[in-house]
Design brief:
Layout (H helix, E strand, L loop, with lengths): L7 H7 L33 H15 L5 E3 L6 H9 L3 E5 L8 E3 L12 E4 L3 H4 L7 H9 L5 E7 L10 H7 L4 E5 L15 E7 L8 E5 L19
C-alpha cells in the first residue's frame, strides 16, 4: 500500500484554465465567482435603521456635543434622522448627492471637525487595511481636531485586519465601544446581505478605552421618547 502511485497528477491534469473542474459524470463545477464591482467612490447609502438604533442607544451622549459632523453625507440618510432627533448637524461629501444644507468637501483636506461629534458611514475602500491602509481613520486621528466623539459604521471583520500597519493603527487608537448589530443591513436593496456590521465608537470622555462589545438590536428612537433626554439646547 505504501508504494501505490499518487493520484495527484491525474487530478491536476483534469483542471482546466477556465477554472472549471470536470467531474466523472461529465458535469462541470461552475467557474469561481468574483466580487461584484464596487460603486463609484464606494458610495452605499446607509439604511436609516442603523442611525435610528444608534440614537436609541447613544443619543444621550451624542446630545452632549455642540454639533455633529457627517463628512460622508450622501443624500442625507443619517443627517435627516439626526436633525429630526434634535441635533445640530453639519453635512459634507466629496460630491453633491442632494443632502439638505450640505456642502462639497474632500474629507482629506479638512483639518477641523465641524462638531464635537463625528458620525458617518465612511467609504470602506479608504478605511480598510487592504485598499485604504486605514487612511480614513489615520487622518481623523492625526489631522482632524475639535472632536471628542467618533462613531463609524463598519463591517465587524474590519478590525481584524493587520496588514499595511493597520494593526498598529488600532493599537494606537483603540475604540471605546463596539455595538454589534444583531441584524444585517441591506445597502443595495438586493436582499440577503452577506455581512454584519457594527458601530465602532471612540469617546475621548472615556479615559481608559476598554474595547468593550455591546449588542445592538434594531431599535427606533422615535418609538421610545422616554429616554430622559433634554434636547432643548440641541436645536
Amino acid at each position: 500500500m505504501g508504494n501505490a502511485p499518487s493520484a495527484k497528477p491525474l487530478f491536476r491534469s483534469m483542471r482546466q484554465k477556465d477554472d472549471t473542474v470536470p467531474l466523472l459524470d461529465g458535469v462541470d463545477l461552475p467557474p469561481k465567482r468574483s466580487d461584484p464591482p464596487r460603486e463609484e467612490l464606494d458610495h452605499y447609502p446607509t439604511p436609516v435603521e442603523a442611525i435610528r438604533s444608534l440614537l436609541w442607544y447613544e443619543g444621550e451622549r451624542i446630545a452632549q456635543a455642540d454639533a455633529v459632523w457627517e463628512p460622508c453625507c450622501g443624500a442625507g440618510n443619517l443627517v435627516n434622522e439626526m436633525r429630526e432627533f434634535g441635533l445640530r448637524v453639519s453635512a459634507s461629501d466629496i460630491v453633491d448627492r442632494g443632502c439638505p444644507d450640505g456642502w462639497v468637501a474632500d474629507f482629506f483636506t479638512c483639518r477641523r471637525s465641524r462638531g464635537q461629534a463625528i458620525i458617518t458611514n465612511p467609504p470602506f475602500d479608504q478605511i480598510n487595511a487592504r485598499d485604504g491602509h486605514g487612511r480614513w481613520l489615520r487622518h481623523t486621528f492625526e489631522q482632524i481636531t475639535g472632536w471628542d466623539y467618533l462613531a463609524l459604521l463598519l463591517p465587524i471583520e474590519w478590525e481584524a485586519a493587520r496588514k499595511n500597519g493597520f494593526g498598529e493603527l488600532l493599537g494606537e487608537h483603540p475604540y471605546s465601544t463596539r455595538y454589534l448589530m444583531r441584524w444585517k443591513l441591506d445597502f443595495t436593496g438586493g436582499g440577503n446581505p452577506p455581512n454584519r456590521h457594527a458601530w465602532f465608537i471612540w469617546d475621548r470622555h472615556d479615559e481608559f478605552p476598554m474595547r468593550a462589545t455591546r449588542y445592538m438590536d434594531k431599535m427606533d428612537w422615535r418609538e421610545d421618547l422616554q429616554m430622559g433626554l433634554d434636547l432643548s439646547g440641541a436645536e
